[in-house]
Amino acid sequence: MSTSSTLKRSAGRAFGAVAALAGVGAALVVAVLLIAASSLNPFRTTTTERHDSVVLAKIQDLSQFEAASGRFTTIVDQQSDTKLPSWATGNHVVLDAEGDVAATVDLSHLSSDVKLSADGKSATVRVPQPQLQPARLDPDATRVIARDQGLLNRVGAAVSGSNPVDDQPLYQRATAKLGDAASQSDLQDRARANTEQFLDDTLHAAGVTNVTVVFDAPAPGQSA
Asked: Fewest CB within 10 A of the end CB: N or C in the chain?
């Protein structure tokens, strides 16, 4: 057998092996593409969205209309003493507090509280009085600006390695004071005016030309 023939057969076998490998690679690529396009692909990710959560949020927003909001500030200055002198066991702390109070109107029954005229051009709407919500303290603007503990308190804290200070009553008092300030402001008056404007604009967009908003009488003990 000549050297030339041997070289030709070796080259042929090498070419055949390369061609076979190329064919196998192409087949694998095709198989992967088919699997990726198939719903049988175990690695395929399907994303779905639940739309009802968005609708629910909108219903909640409409049922509680935030008609007005005000920001208020206050100082809580408290001194705690015992029978011993204040320099010994007293505790003096000053809290500078700032927060928001919202006035909301319950519109959850609005569909039944609107009375339309026969021609649909006039409407009378009955709504509850605005309600002041609990004050929301702004954590970035509320802080203790002064604290003075008695000598024995400081010594006890140094010995024990702890400083058991509970400022929660201060924050609760600040929240109450902000609420009192809101009730004495014109926040509810502005809430009524904004509610009337909101309902007037809403019903005008529906073709009603004359809108009358009637606020229910405040409940006993409730400020008007």
From this structure: N
Q: Cα–Cα distance between 18 and 163 in angstroms, integer?
A: 79
- 135, 101 contact by CB (below 8 A): yes
Neighbouring residues of 67: CB distance < 8 A, sequence distance ≥ 6:
103, 104, 105, 130, 190, 191, 192, 194, 195, 198
Whether this prediction's pTM lies above 0.70 is answered by no
What is the enclosing helix (H) or strand (E) of 80? strand 64-80
Classify strands 131-132 and 91-106 as parallel, antiparallel or unpaired.
Answer: antiparallel
pLDDT by residue, tens only, the chain of 224 residues = 554 454 444 444 544 444 444 444 555 544 545 455 555 555 455 555 444 444 444 444 567 889 999 999 999 988 776 655 555 566 788 999 999 999 999 988 877 778 888 888 898 999 999 999 999 999 999 999 988 775 555 545 544 555 556 788 889 999 999 999 999 999 999 999 999 999 999 888 888 899 999 998 766 555 55
DSSP per position, 106-151: E-TTHHHHEEE-TTSSEEEEEEPPPEEPPPEE-TTT-EEEEEEE-H
